[in-house]
Design a protein that fits this description.
This protein starts with a helix and ends with a helix. The protein has helices at 2-23, 26-34, 36-64, 72-100, 123-129, 135-140, 144-159, 163-189, 191-206, 208-239, 245-251, 253-262, 269-278, 284-297, 300-316, 323-336, 346-349, 352-357, 364-369, 373-404. It has a single domain, classed as Proton glutamate symport protein, CATH 1.10.3860. It has 20 helices and no strands. By secondary structure, it is an all-alpha fold.
Length: 405
């Protein structure tokens, strides 16, 4: 029902905006212009909850791992695979979108609150800035990366505490996460009104160019996800696990179907566990550990989407991305992709701080909310394929080591 209402808000916003742009009708122009505060209210609500949500999710995820020294080789291999493959996903998303925008029409940049574009830092200054002198000041300024570094270090230290203390802190962080996710749901219930307030005035200024650009965005995300699957996950399964693409894809069809229809990898966990063990031969021990962990931490499709979205919105708002800034964007998107919450369009919600760090107005998020259902279904499928691929590869590595011993 919520998706239908969000779509309704998008359609009405497009109709009013396009009508105002094409006809110059004073009434439509007034409606489009005066609805802008509704969009601003919606974006402010998102920005209000996103930083504490990111902090709570990262803290709980890292602290639950326990003492890093005790993770063992399975945990080390898994996290290494997560981190190494997320970078190519982000780069693919940014690259495909950069190429796709060559076919996008020129659009008039919508009015937005002026955002100061940060000066490009040297690599040394960038690394130094990741360690905040005052984490509370970093939070107040919306500086995501230093705050995440502090949170991850605190969570790692928490993992070394006695089990009782660690579990108490993890439980508290998870409870806070649940409360914040409930707030996100409340905000999403207002999304149809907020999206109308964002789309109508933007479309009134940008006309058909916005609609054409959004179509190109969806196509580019689809192509990027296809590249990620065909040139990363399937070859890894073929050459390392000796598993043919046909067997892998047919053996994960149920999990992909659930993820596609629900846009949730968490909802697909039971089917992923069943298919990875019964169809792909993954041991129950490995599957029981890595499938739920992957659903919490590893979303390569979401990382690709976020990389593409940042490039797209930077283009829409006329914000140039220098080569040096691209590295910072990749790092920021890598960290943000680890914090995607189990709510619709959460890949968009968590992008707000990363956008602001390069000077792109957060109001651009509303442009993506209305059309996100299609990319969300596609990236959820790829997320599940990546999570199952991890289980297959780690399990195969363990088998090879056991046979060698």
């Amino acid at each position: 029902m919520l998706n239908k209402l969000i779509t309704l808000g998008l359609v009405l916003g497009l109709l009013v905006g396009l009508g105002a742009s094409m006809t110059g009708n004073e009434i439509l122009q007034t409606i489009a212009r005066e609805s802008a505060p509704l969009g601003k209210l919606f974006i402010n609500a998102i920005k209000m909850v996103v930083l504490p949500l990111v902090v709570a999710v990262i803290f709980a995820s890292v602290a639950k791992l326990g003492d890093p020294a005790k993770l063992g080789k399975i945990g080390g291999k898994t996290l290494a695979f997560y981190w190494v493959t997320l970078i190519p996903a982000i780069v693919i998303g940014m690259g495909v979108m950069t190429m796709g925008l060559k076919f996008a029409p020129s659009v008039k940049v919508p009015d937005a609150e002026p955002t100061k574009i940060p000066e490009l830092q040297s690599i040394t200054d960038f690394i130094v800035s990741l360690v905040p002198a005052n984490p509370f000041a970093a939070a107040a300024n919306g500086s995501l990366l230093p705050l995440i570094v502090f949170t991850a270090l605190l969570a790692a230290a928490t993992g070394t505490l006695a089990a009782e203390k660690r579990e108490r802190m993890v439980t508290g962080a998870e409870d806070i996460s649940e409360a914040l996710i409930k707030m996100v749901w409340w905000i999403l219930y207002l999304a149809p009104i907020g999206i109308f307030g964002l789309i109508a005035p933007a479309t009134a200024k940008m006309g058909w160019g916005l609609l054409q650009s959004l179509t190109i965005f969806i196509i580019c995300v689809f192509i990027g996800l296809l590249i990620l699957m065909v040139f990363l996950f399937l070859p890894l399964n073929l050459f390392i696990a000796k598993m043919s693409p046909k067997k892998f894809l047919s053996g994960t069809l149920g999990a992909m179907s659930v993820a596609f229809s629900t846009t949730s990898t968490a909802a697909a966990i039971p089917v992923s566990l069943k298919e990875s063990t019964e169809n792909l031969g993954v041991s129950e021990t490995t599957a029981d550990l890595l499938i739920p962990l992957g659903a919490s931490l590893y979303r390569p499709g979401s990382a690709l989407f976020q990389g593409a979205a940042i490039v797209f919105l930077a283009h829409i708002f006329g914000v140039p991305i220098a080569l040096g800034e691209a590295g910072a964007i990749i790092f920021a998107t890598f960290l943000v992709s680890l914090t995607v919450a189990p709510v619709p369009s959460s890949s968009i919600v968590t992008m707000a701080p990363a956008l602001q760090s390069i000077g792109v107005p957060a109001t651009g998020l509303g442009i993506l909310f209305g059309i996100d259902r299609i990319p969300d279904m596609m990236r959820s499928c790829v997320n599940v394929l990546g999570q199952i691929t991890t289980a297959v590869l780690v399990d195969k590595s363990n088998e090879q080591k056991a046979s060698a011993d």
